[in-house]
Amino acid sequence: MTQNETRPERGLTVHYPCKYVPAELLAGFGAGCWPCTHEAESFDRADELAHPNLCGYGKSLLAHALDPSVHALVLTSCCDVMRRVYDIVRSEGSVDFLWMLDLPHLRGPREVARFRGELMRLAEAFGAWSGREFSLDAALASFDPPVPRTDERVTLLGAHAPLSLVDTCRDELSLHVENGTCTGFRQVASPPSTLARAPRPDCHACGDENEASGLDRFLDWYADALLNQTPCMRMDDVAARGALIDAPGQRGVIYHTMKFCDYYGFEYLEASRTSEVPMLKIETDGTRQSAGQLSTRLKAFDETLRGMAETGGDAHAHADGPVYVLGVDSGSTSTDAVIVDGDGAIVASVIVPTGAKASAGARRAIEEVLGKAGLTDADLTLRVATGYGRGAIDGMDSTITEITCHARGAHFLAPGARTIIDIGGQDSKVIHLDEAGGVTNFVMNDKCAAGTGRFLEATARAMELSLDEFCRVGLEWKHDVKISSMCTVFAESEVVSLVADDTPVADIVHGLDMSVAGKTASLAKRVKAEPPYLMTGGVAQNVGVVRALEDVLGAPVTTHEDSQLCGAIGAALLGLESLG
Ligand code: SF4
Ligand code: SF4
């Protein structure tokens, strides 16, 4: 606890990062409370003062606390990061009133009594620092009326969600997104009406009997109410947490984990194992994540919840005259275009290199596929784009995420497939399907080249092998070689050392294939993948990786001659089906 002599010049605002901070108690002293939910513009100052491994929220909180406009900050003993932030802010001396509230893990009578004592100490210190007295009326007037939960909703759970994350979720999802993270789900019960009236009969201890007894009576009730909010993951009441996830009306959960925070990963694993509610796991480092990456996952989750991929029935002709639907899949390495007719049959398809600009690659692909089909743009009934560059393509009628399009395309190519493993040039994804081809779950690795085509290309280059040689040579391996590094840069130097040690090339390539397979299998585990497996994307051409995946998954992995076109086929078919 520290209290500087300086008084706040402006309104009395207490900043807080946790829903267990007693906002209503502080309101009794005339203070407003402000949740710390903004990401810092820069982590430079936080990196100077703290270890770089401090979680992103801790860094943002630190940057927030060091802002000259912050005069009062109340933290809770949630985790080591909070304690570290407290220590740094105290040693910097930048905040006039700084308090660490000791928070129990349990909610039994003994813990409530101890917590009441903590709240009383805070009240005394805050009263002394601010020079204000507690007003029971002001405290009681500050309670927010209970907010009824929306009937059909998606809840954002897990680590502290910065405002931009909440906004992005709300922008991309059609259902209402409720923020169930630390400061987003603050719901203290309403005080009983008797609290305002009844004096405490046994309180004669202090001079100002009304005010003192008012604070005592308030805390007698409030400590229990504050602690008995819907528990966060820091509390030991696991059953009540489960109820939050499985509550009626819950259509989906977006589970946010934070880089350098170990707490939420365990809860996510347990929840995804035990709950049937569709869940999307996202990880951020507390900064504004690449909007494109996050947006694709959220949009795909939205499409999954809305059941877009469940339109897995046979495509059918419609309306008068010929129908032609164009699907374009704009990937990092290639752009694929497919035209289907009104019966859902493929009329023409092309695969062209994307090149430096997604829009130019798409233009080339569209010109070529139209030429091949003997059609012009005017003959097209609908144009649908997918893939990471989908937003950059001119003249499209709609866009659908690659997750939904791959699912539809895979169901067309291999109707029985239950898991799609797609490894492209820059990302990899595993999509689990139901029997009708609807997406039940998916996971993407789009943060680094590890386990993708780019990783294999870079290591092939380091070994001076063409891609063709690289795909074949690994099948002739004799001895297991373990490539321990998944980072492309480190793996390249590992490969160079193995070559220098005269390790046979076939063994090294097999080691690389196995490392990609291992990384993909761990993604597959997260979506409860099951056979039959279909592999799509450019790396499906690499028979060494396909065999390695079969080894790791313990089941056959099939490919299809058109598997590279899977996304574009799916886009065209979903477009066709949308025509009704
Ligand atoms: S995890 Fe719980 S205790 Fe920790 S900051 Fe969030 S709400 Fe508070
Ligand atoms: S994200 Fe994790 S480590 Fe960071 S403050 Fe929250 S609970 Fe603590």
TrEMBL record:
<dbReference type="InterPro" id="IPR002731">
    <property type="entry name" value="ATPase_BadF"/>
</dbReference>
<dbReference type="GO" id="GO:0051536">
    <property type="term" value="F:iron-sulfur cluster binding"/>
</dbReference>
<keyword id="KW-0411">Iron-sulfur</keyword>
<feature type="domain" description="ATPase BadF/BadG/BcrA/BcrD type">
    <location>
        <begin position="326"/>
        <end position="575"/>
    </location>
</feature>
<dbReference type="GO" id="GO:0046872">
    <property type="term" value="F:metal ion binding"/>
</dbReference>
<dbReference type="InterPro" id="IPR010327">
    <property type="entry name" value="FldB/FldC_alpha/beta"/>
</dbReference>
<dbReference type="Pfam" id="PF01869">
    <property type="entry name" value="BcrAD_BadFG"/>
</dbReference>
<keyword id="KW-0479">Metal-binding</keyword>
<dbReference type="Pfam" id="PF06050">
    <property type="entry name" value="HGD-D"/>
</dbReference>
<keyword id="KW-0408">Iron</keyword>
<dbReference type="InterPro" id="IPR008275">
    <property type="entry name" value="CoA_E_activase_dom"/>
</dbReference>
<dbReference type="InterPro" id="IPR043129">
    <property type="entry name" value="ATPase_NBD"/>
</dbReference>
<protein>
    <submittedName>
        <fullName>Bifunctional 2-hydroxyacyl-CoA dehydratase/activator domain-containing protein</fullName>
    </submittedName>
</protein>
<dbReference type="InterPro" id="IPR051805">
    <property type="entry name" value="Dehydratase_Activator_Redct"/>
</dbReference>
